[in-house]
Amino acid sequence: MRIAIPIAALTLVAAAPAADAPVLNIARGQTVTVQIAGSGFTAAAPIQAEVAPFEAAAVNTLWQTGKYKVGSVGTGAGHDGVPETPPIAPDRIKLKMVEYPAGQTMLAVENGYAQSFVYRAVMHRGGGAQPTTVCLVMPGKRTMEHWPFKIDRLELRDLHLVDWKRGDAMPCQ
User: Fold this and answer.
1) Quick one: CA torsion of 35, 116, 46, 6, rounded to 10 degrees?
2) CB 97 within 8 A of CB 133
3) CB 39: neighbour CB atoms within 10 A?
């Protein structure tokens, strides 16, 4: 579960447990594009996040119809009034954190790789931090993580690609 919109700063920092493990910070209102290479990644400078029509329609449909289910597909492009989606750029990950009404937060993730994208996330809100569950993003697909509260920023760690094929589990961790 997740949703958000404003702009902030992106940084790569060393973080525990591994002192040299890169961390990606994304703040409310930012979009960041990432390229994965081996055990690391490079990130472009963040830009202001804008909610795409298909994202707004999907989120509104999920909330209004009650079809939203954690870790499942409740609706999709071309269904339930959700417009078709633009193509996903190849060989990159696009992360967009936006705030929705009533202080809810969404992280939209696009995976342009032929492998699945996995990562771990820590929420930062109101001066505190806690880990949160996020799900694998299938090759060439999008996902939306949603939280029913405001998140100031997400700290993303262990960004990497894994082999995945239809029928494999879609872990959330």
Assistant:
1) 180
2) no
3) 10
Number of residues written out for the chain: 173
CA neighbours within 13 Å on the CB side: how many for 124?
12
Q: Has this prediction a pTM greater than 0.85? A: no
> Model confidence at 51, in pLDDT bands (50, 70, 90)?
confident
E runs forming strands in the chain: 12-15, 21-27, 30-37, 40-43, 47-48, 93-100, 104-111, 116-125, 128-132, 142-147, 153-162
Asked if residue 57 has pLDDT above 50, the reply is yes
Query: Which contiguous run of DSSP H or E holds residue 22?
Result: strand 21-27
Q: Helix (H, G, I), strand (E, B), or coil: what is residue 29?
A: coil
Count of helices and strands (H, E) across the chain: 1, 11
Nearest CA to 98 among 17, 42, 153? 153
Q: What is the pLDDT of residues 108-139, one digit of tens each?
A: 999 999 999 999 999 999 999 999 999 999 99
Alpha-carbon distance of 110 to 87, in angstroms, equals 10
Element (H, E) at 53: helix 53-65
